[in-house]
Design a protein that fits this description.
It is built from nine helices and ten strands. By secondary structure, the protein is α/β, with parallel strands linked by helices. The strands form two sheets. A five-stranded parallel beta sheet has the order 3-2-4-1-5, with helices on both faces. A five-stranded mixed beta sheet has the order 6-7-10-8-9, sandwiched between helices. The structure holds S-adenosyl-L-homocysteine. S-adenosyl-L-homocysteine (SAH) binds next to helix 5, strand 8 and strand 10.
Amino acid sequence: MNNGKVILVGAGPGDPELLTLKALKAIQRATVLFVDDLVSDEIVAFAPPNARIVHVGKRGGCKSTPQAFIEKLMIMAAREGEHVVRLKGGDPFIFGRGGEEVENLRAAGVEVEVINGITAGLAAVTSLGVPLTHRQHAQGVVFVTGHAKPGDAGTDWQALAATAHSARLTLVIYMGVSGAGRIQNELLTGLPAATPVAVIQNASLPTQRHLITTLGALADAINEGGMASPSIIVVGDVISGVALAAAHPEAVRAA
Ligand code: SAH
């Protein structure tokens, strides 16, 4: 029996021009699209006019569709021979439960293809004109979530801080804004209070804004700047390279 196929497509951070050509082609061929919250309308508009668009995020104040139900709908559509595209923000395999979806679809006998997207952390830092790695400042980069699965102990921030300090790593924190106070306190056990930090909201979109601060002032800066989700927090010396005043007059607060 042919169980069909689902393509998980990374929609990138928001700017439609950051889509890959492969992603665009998959969207243009889709007959049904299951669309996450953080995917911009301009990207959904690339779908054929007669394609069925299913929004499965929290838009319009509705509760998000349960993950198991989304997977069930995708499996049914794939079995019916639809060209199923699952559009996810950023890259499908950086947070956002892409890994779980692939496992469950494959377990149901559905073929899965994954098309990369530019992950928000990468786009956020690039939009400030600084790199994630730098021979003088950072030997590597860690993408980490600030929001653990319910009931899970979550990230060991103290261990991460010590490693980031000794191995000189840039920390790129997703979903960290609401827990910033705790993250700040724990990171301060291993990183200096003066470590530069950037918070970038709505990266790559016309509504993008950011602030530059230090680890010691992070939570206060987020509150004062009114920074909210979706935001990326970047911790590390690469941020010291941000030529703030000249290049980014939209910054909400300078250090
Ligand atoms: N798969 C996505 C991440 C999903 S988790 C990716 O690769 O980008 C959702 C989190 O991603 C948000 O809470 C936020 O931390 C981050 N995020 C997604 N889009 C963003 C954007 N345009 N600007 C800033 N952060 C963003």
